[in-house]
Amino acid sequence: MAGLVLLSLLLTSVLLTPQQISAQQCGQVQVLKQGLIFGGTASTPGMWPWHVAVFHRESIRRTSYKCGGTIINRDTVLTAYHCVVENQRPIAAGRLVVRAGLFDLDVGGPTVQENRVFDVISPPGASARTFDDDIAILKMQTQFTYDDYVQPVCIRSERQDIGQLVGTYGTVVGWGWTEQSTTSAELRQANIPVVSAEDCLASDRNLFSQVLTTKVYCAGSRNGTSSCNGDSGGGMFFRMGGYWFLRGLTSFSAVDAKQSGICDSHGYVGYTDVAKYLDWLREQGVRYEDPLQRPGTVSKPVPSDGSTALLRLAVDPKTKKFLQQHGGNVLLRVQLNGRRVETVRGCLQYDTVPGYNETLEYFATDNFRYVGRTHNSKYIRVGMVGPTDGIIRFGKSRFPYGESVSEICLSGWANQNSEVNRHTRTSNSEYVNTPLKIQLTPNVLSKTRPMMFRLEVFDNGNVLLTKDGEKRPFLEFNDNRQRLDLDYIAFTKWNHELFYYYDCPLDTDANGVDDTVLLKCSLA
Ligand SMILES: *[C@@H]1O[C@H](CO)[C@@H](O)[C@H](O)[C@H]1NC(C)=O
Ligand SMILES: *[C@@H]1O[C@H](CO)[C@@H](O)[C@H](O)[C@H]1NC(C)=O
């Protein structure tokens, strides 16, 4: 697993200039083509340069094809959420591989750009079971190089109601329909019309009444031609004003009763309506191009949250060499405004975090400078910054092998839920987790902003976690079976890097808290 390299740069020699968004044109086929064959099924290499294949890495050597996806900018691919889920849980970003410039699924070739995924972002409501919010952003570890075979698609920035497209033909491309069916080796395409929600419902009320929402639309010819030529996660494209635009993501269809797992090619297919996610894309700092946007209606660029911003750094040759060795897959922590400030005022920072199964470093809280006590509780202030899975253990001994500690995992499941376990470990490979609580805590962690909170353990066994500036705890639990002690505390991680802050001042209203930012950096 390619871990992220974390490093801090000295601020004085670092010059930051946001990378210019080049005037790249989206949605243009680059290869010379001898007439497009619409309604047919074959495509030719380079005809859909924004269409990519998403693979799951099963082992070091083996990847298996899962889905299609669409390039919308140099380091971003859109796909369906259900394509990045395995056994109902989000798959680790490090296990996803994207191949762009691919035509024959079984044959690589010089046009193929293979890229690892750095981060997967999905809406809080995304579900692979109900197909709600079936959309996911894949942030790439390195940028795509645009050429004849790799290009971004366009997206309309004005919200055009899907009703206006009913009866209009869009094009779906792909290597096959589902994960289970046999895929075609060569990329195929099909033209299919958008149908109204009423027609779609009427065609199969059982299926569509459950999954049709305002963020989904249906398309299909119902004559056996097209829907199975689509590809889960791949796009449905419309040509307007000489540009190709992405509108739908192939999401779900009825299953053919005669062939299990194969879609019913005589039914309609549901597509995630990308136009319903424009605000969400902007909130995630994802850029896309709309060459048809009228001047004057340019929406203000929403500042990216930093984690996905691409910054071009001017660095000394030694640092540059180091960064290049890591292929641009580097999370930089840079201090802002050239001031020497601590990331979180007054805290000790912990950035050499051992892995989940490694021997952890337990800190004695009685040695902390800042420990709070009330007549019936003890509390400390801690924090963390990272994408998901901030994991804290605490208990009553420095080396708690064979005895239980309390384990709080903040924002597992792709930053959606937090989980509390009674964790009993006997060795680096053996442990038992007894779940005490699972709670919905969507996006409680941030990759860029330290999440600071008070951890308070009461004599009666109640534990409260309360975020800075909030009165009500966001997580609360109790272990009825054993007393919980906050004598020793340790920090670990699952498969993403995090920083922790501990021994923090207990007063939280002082200013100057968050003066650093994590940046995904790209190398020139
Ligand atoms: C199905 O309909 C589409 C247009 O809706 C047409 O292009 C295609 O040729 C038809 N296929 C068959 C097998 O009739
Ligand atoms: C920790 O060990 C368990 C059991 O050996 C394993 O299933 C799990 O994947 C490991 N976790 C990490 C993050 O390596």
Report on this model:
α1 crosses α2. The chain is mostly beta strands and 524 residues long. The protein has helices at residues 197-203, 205-211, 278-283, 317-325, 412-415, and strands at residues 5-8, 15-18, 51-57, 63-73, 76-79, 85-86, 89-90, 96-100, 113-121, 136-140, 169-174, 188-195, 216-219, 235-240, 243-253, 269-273, 310-314, 330-335, 348-350, 363-364, 372-374, 377-385, 390-395, 404-411, 417-425, 431-440, 451-458, 462-467, 475-478, 488-492, 499-502, 516-521. It has 5 helices and 32 strands. 6% of the residues lie in helices and 36% in strands. The protein folds into 2 domains: 23-292, Thrombin, subunit H (Beta Barrel), CATH 2.40.10.120; 348-502, Jelly Rolls (Sandwich), CATH 2.60.120.200. The strands form 6 sheets. Strands 19, 21, 22, 27, 28, 29 and 31 form a 7-stranded antiparallel beta sheet that branches. The model is unreliable at 1-23, 33-40, 296-312, 334-342 and 510-524 (pLDDT under 50). The structure holds 2-acetamido-2-deoxy-beta-D-glucopyranose (2 copies). Residues 39, 221, 223-225 line the site of one 2-acetamido-2-deoxy-beta-D-glucopyranose (NAG). One 2-acetamido-2-deoxy-beta-D-glucopyranose binds at residues 355-357, 429, 494-495. One of its GO terms (cellular component) is extracellular region. Belongs to the peptidase S1 family. CLIP subfamily. It is found in: Secreted. InterPro entries: CLIP_Serine_Protease, Methyltransf_FA, Peptidase_S1_PA, Peptidase_S1_PA_chymotrypsin, Peptidase_S1A, Trypsin_dom. Residues 1-23 form the signal peptide.
